[in-house]
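Reply to dn_fold:

You asked what the input looked like. This is it:
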Amino acid sequence: MNFSKSSTGQPADAAWNALATACNQITFTSTATSKVIATVTYTGTTKQGGSGTPSIVATYTGMAQLTGVNQTIFQQNSTTYPYTGDYIKVEALITGSTIQFTTTWFAAAGSLSYKNQQISAGAVTAISYYPPETTYISNTWGTPTLAASVV
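and this is what came back:
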């Protein structure tokens, strides 16, 4: 998943844009066992690039560790005052052969209720699928379907 957000003219835009840039990208592998692909090591859920320190990066969770109940695999909070209660979180679950990722862009309320925290559809994350190479193995996984919705 690559995190990005376009400007919407809302007061919290700069903070949300900074948080999306800080999250940058996460990858999700088949198992929690370490994999090296093109000299890059991936383990379960891995954050790549960006800045800051996520509160959750589930390196112990890959596809094989998923259940039918949402598990948080990534969360990073904003470091921009006064939006430090805001965060981006990714949860995952599996049902049959379908993996469902839910991304939450949470705007804290409370003392910030006077600020307009609206986030438009421009905040949607992009999901990319990178299949294994097929030089030495046969494609037995087919072509996955990717879909996204904004609630």
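Residues 13-113 form one domain.
Hope that clears it up.
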